[in-house]
Each structure stands twice: as C-alpha cells, then as structure tokens.
C-alpha cells in the first residue's frame, strides 16, 4: 500500500478507538514509520540524477529492517512514553504496525507479476517467518484505490461530525480550515436537498 493509505488506515484505527488528539497522532505514526526503511530510494534517485553508479538501496533495504515484529514491539513502546493513555497507545500502535504489514503483504506488488514484496516478520535478526503472497496486487490496483477512497470518506465524515481530521497532526490551523470547509459544504448539500424535498 502507498504511504498515504498507511497514514489514513492508521489514523482511522486510532480515531475509531476514540483516542484523544495526541494519542491518535502517536498511533498514526506507528502505522507510518515502518516505511522509513524505504528512504534508500532518495539515495538511489540521487545517484541516478548525479550520474553516479546505480544503487539499489530501496530494493535491498525496504521491508528489511522495520517491517516486522521487532518494530511492532519497539516503536509503540517508545511512542507510548509520550501518550496520555499509554497502554492503549501501545496496543493500538502494535495493531497499526500489523495493519501496515498486512497492507504491504496484500497490496504492494511492483509493476511485474513476479515483483512480490515479502514481509520478513523476524527481520533484521532472522530470515525465518518471511511471508509472501502470490496474489499480491500492484500498488496502483483498484483494491488499493478503493481502500484509499474508503479511508478518505471516513476522514470527511469525521471532519463533518467530530470537527477534526488527520491534518490535526501537522497544523491546528490547516485542520480548522479543512473542517470548516467540509462542514460548510455538508450544510449546503443538506440545505439544497431539503429545499428540493419541500
């Protein structure tokens, strides 16, 4: 799954658990940060742009360090230190990372049918328990797009009803602007529908 889908899925999980804003953010970060092991793509692109010899850091290291049990235990343990509800953040962070792993297992294939991304569950310590699925769909496949749209629909619904969105993690002002826009549009749609029904 794309980082955006991971972000929305993790935030949705945290919001569905009705955590406070800080704890929602911490659980969401748990679901996103495993993709830090994919930052080798920046080095690969830099080498290509600068005419240096090709490197394959992304292919070698993405899913190799932070996509497993060790991260699922360690990352929530670190982030829950900053939480209001520490135990719930730890448990939901653990679940968010496993949601990330599941998303990668089912929906992270590359462009070719043999370009499968395995999930090395016990890496970087052991090669045992590496999981892969031959039915893995490509990143741009319709199930990934449909899931992202479903998560976005949830975000819009929560913005309209609860008065906050995932933007709260980055800027209170941006979040307030987004929520205000969504609420204004929703009220306009409701007014339009009621005037047609009258």
Q: How does this structure look, described?
A:
The protein is mostly helical and 198 residues long. The protein has one domain. The protein is 61% helix and 2% strand. The protein contains eight helices and two strands, in the order H-H-H-H-H-H-E-E-H-H. The protein has helices at residues 3-16, 21-32, 40-49, 57-61, 69-79, 86-107, 142-162, 172-197; strands spanning 119-120, 130-131. Strands 1-2 form a two-stranded antiparallel ribbon. Helix 5 runs antiparallel to helix 6. The radius of gyration is 19 Å and the shape is globular. The model has no long low-confidence stretch (mean pLDDT 91).
Key descriptive features of the protein:
198 residues; mainly alpha; two-stranded antiparallel sheet; 8 helices
Helix and strand layout, with pairings?
Elements: H1 3-16, H2 21-32, H3 40-49, H4 57-61, H5 69-79, H6 86-107, E1 119-120, E2 130-131, H7 142-162, H8 172-197
Antiparallel strand pairs: 1-2
Helix pairs in contact: 1-2, 1-6, 1-7, 2-6, 5-6, 7-8
Brief digest:
Helix content is 61%, strand content 2%.
Summarize the biggest pleated sheet: 2 strands, antiparallel
Structural class: mainly alpha
The percent range for strand residues is: under 5%
Count of distinct structural domains: 1
Average pLDDT reading: 91
């Amino acid at each position: 799954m794309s980082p955006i889908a991971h972000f929305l899925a993790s935030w949705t999980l945290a919001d569905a658990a009705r955590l406070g804003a800080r704890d929602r953010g911490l659980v969401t970060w748990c679901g996103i940060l495993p993709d830090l092991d994919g930052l080798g793509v920046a080095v690969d692109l830099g080498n290509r742009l600068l005419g240096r010899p090709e490197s394959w850091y992304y292919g070698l290291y993405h899913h190799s360090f932070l996509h497993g049990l060790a991260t699922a235990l360690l990352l929530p343990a670190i982030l829950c230190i900053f939480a209001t509800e520490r135990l719930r953040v730890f448990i939901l962070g653990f679940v968010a990372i496993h949601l990330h792993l599941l998303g990668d297992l089912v929906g992270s294939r590359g462009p070719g049918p043999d370009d499968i991304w395995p999930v090395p569950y016990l890496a970087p310590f052991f090669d045992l328990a590496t999981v892969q699925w031959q039915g893995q769909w490509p990143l741009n496949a319709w199930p990934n797009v449909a899931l992202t749209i479903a998560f976005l629909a949830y975000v819009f619904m929560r913005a309209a009803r609860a008065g906050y969105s995932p933007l709260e993690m980055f800027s209170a002002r941006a979040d307030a602007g987004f929520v205000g826009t969504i609420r204004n549009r929703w009220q306009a749609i409701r007014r339009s529908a009621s005037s047609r029904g009258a």
